[in-house]
Every structure is written in C-alpha cells, then in structure tokens.
Amino acid sequence: MDEETLDRKNLITMKLLHYFITEKNYNPIILQGVENEIWLENLNENYKIVRIVSNYIHNNEQFEFDLFKTKRIVKKIKAKTLSMHLNTLSIFMDLGDYVDMESVKDIDCVKIYDEQDLGKSEEIKHNFPDMMKKLVYCEDGMQLFFKITTDINEHNKHDSEKMEEVFKPKKPIVTYLLIALNVLFYIGPVLFGKYEQFLDLFCIHGPSIRILGEYYRLFTGAFLHGGIFHLLFNCYALFIIGSQLESFLGKAKYFAIYLYSILTAGLLSIIFSGNTASVGASGAIFGLMGGLLYFGYHYRVYLGNVVKSQIIPLIVLNLVFGFIMPGIDNAAHIGGLIGGILMTMSLGVKYKSTKFEQTNAWIVTILFTLFLLYMALVYIH
Hints:
Distance between the termini: 81 Å
Structural class: mainly alpha
Low-confidence stretches: 1-6
Helix content: 55-70%
Radius of gyration: 27 Å
CATH class of the largest domain: Mainly Alpha
Mean pLDDT: 90
CATH topology of the largest domain: Rhomboid-like fold
Largest sheet: 5 strands, mixed
Number of strands: 5
C-alpha cells in the first residue's frame, strides 16, 4: 500500500469513528486477535454493530473468510448481550475490484474508496442520513486530527462519568427502612403477645379485601411474616437485591417499584389463592429482581455475564422452588416479578430508556393494573 492510500484510509477511518462515537453514541468493542478492523456497538441503533475494515481483501476466498469470521464474532456478542439479532454493517475500505461483494443475513456490506462512496450507499443513506453532512469539517491536516481525537476523548470521558454515576455505590437508605419496617411489624406484636391477632387483621386475605373492603391488606400483608426464619430470609434477600437496585436506580424509583410490586403481588395472590391468607415480602422482592433484570438488560454490555449467569438463574430457581414446595404463594411471586419489570420500564433506566419506551410502558402498566383490579375485586366472588 502506498502512502497516499494509507492517508486516505486513515482519514476516512478517523472521520467515521468521530461520527459513530460522538454523533451516534457507538462504543468500541475490544476483541482479541482482530487486526486492521474496528468494531463498534450501539444496541439502540438499527445496525447494532458497525465494522470498519481497512485491511486489503483481494479475492473472493478472503472475503468469504471475512464473512465467516464476522458471523463467529457476532455470535459470541449475541450470547454476551442476550440479543436475538445483531444487524451488522461492514464498511470495507480496501476491497479488490474482482471481489464479488454480497450481503448475508444480518450482515450488510458496503465498499468505499472515498467519502463520496458513502453518499452512494443505500444502507448508509437509509440508516445514517446525516452522515455526509457530519463528515464535513472546517479543519484539515493536523488540526482535523487533533479535533477528532479531542472530541472522541471528551465523549469517552463523558460516557465514563455517566457510568461512574450509575454504578457508584450509594447508601441504601430506603432498603434499610424497609427492612426495619419488616422487623418492627414482627417484633412489636410478638413482644405484646398479639402476633396471631395481628396476622388476622393485616394479612392478605381475598374475602376480607373483596367483601369487607379492607384494601389496606394488599400492602400491610407484605410487611408480615409467618415466623422468624421467614422474616430473616426475606430481610437478607431484600438487603442483597434491594441495596443494588436502589444504588442503580435511585431512592424514589426504587421505592415506587417496591410499592407497585407489593400491589401486583397481592392482587395476583388473591386471584389464585381463594380464601387462603398470605403474608411476606417475597412478592415485592421478586419485583426488585424484575427491576434488576430490566436494568441489567440495558447495561448488559457493562455487566458482562451477570444477567445470564446470576440474575436470570436466581429468578428461575426461586420460581421453581415456589412451585415445588408447598405453602409458597408463587402467584404473588409472579405478580411481583411482572410488576417490578413494568414499573422499572415505566420509570426508565437512566441514560438508556427513551420517552417512547416509557410512554408505552406506562400504557401497559395501567392496563395491567386495571386488569388485575377487575379480576381480583370484581370478577372473582
């Protein structure tokens, strides 16, 4: 390759990196053993992955091997990010004239020599209609190089600050208060020898809620427990899961998720439990697990395999345990889980959720709540 070709490729590569990183919020993917190509990801774009390939591909065999290698790497990224489809755009900057370039399923290929070729690509025009305008700079030479590198560094610094803000541990004050309430609701009546009467007055009990209108039971029952071990287990789970979610989402969102999960857990419980009474914070804790699952899905690139190896197995294991063991109100667990996911979607995950997603989530959440209220309080007699 002559010096002019290298300068051309380097210049276009820098401009494309500047565009994808600073304008479209793509993030570089670090891959071992990959040379002369840059991988970028943004799971919110139509093209989840963009490849900028600068190495020379001079025949069909090399091109086919490039497609094979790309499919293999994309498959690994799918597994890591829990994605069903990762539409990929491969931008080739040094493709031989005799290469029969073709796109395959989920991988579109674009051949360019200069910036004008970008404007001729249907894939680029459709998915990045502002690209050509954004690639025009007043600077040139070393000034352009410094501008691009400075902008990218500033953007990366800003992203790092946002991630630090989200993941920096915060004191879980609301979690401590909720644990204290659960303990107080147990110790107080026990000390006065009135715990059985307390359970009868404040547990979740379908007929009392529907017929007598004691709707407060939907919430008070979530702070009562059937014994000391039941209390200790739920308080431990609340501390482990709740402190993380409160740190990630903030106190107000966290508290709203907890309360709504109590409601949905209680409503689904009385739909399926008949006249059986129910107590415990586990429905709300499942709601927190649902919130953690939704948060983890949005930040799965940063959390690595935590969602797949820890959060999902924890939810599945507890649900299976609830179906196997007698005396466990799994309807409340499922209701809390669904409620936690819906309320987290409605309130949004910082720097990730869009207004469109939140609006749709609020609509679904309201409809789901009305459906549960109708089924629990009107339909079932």
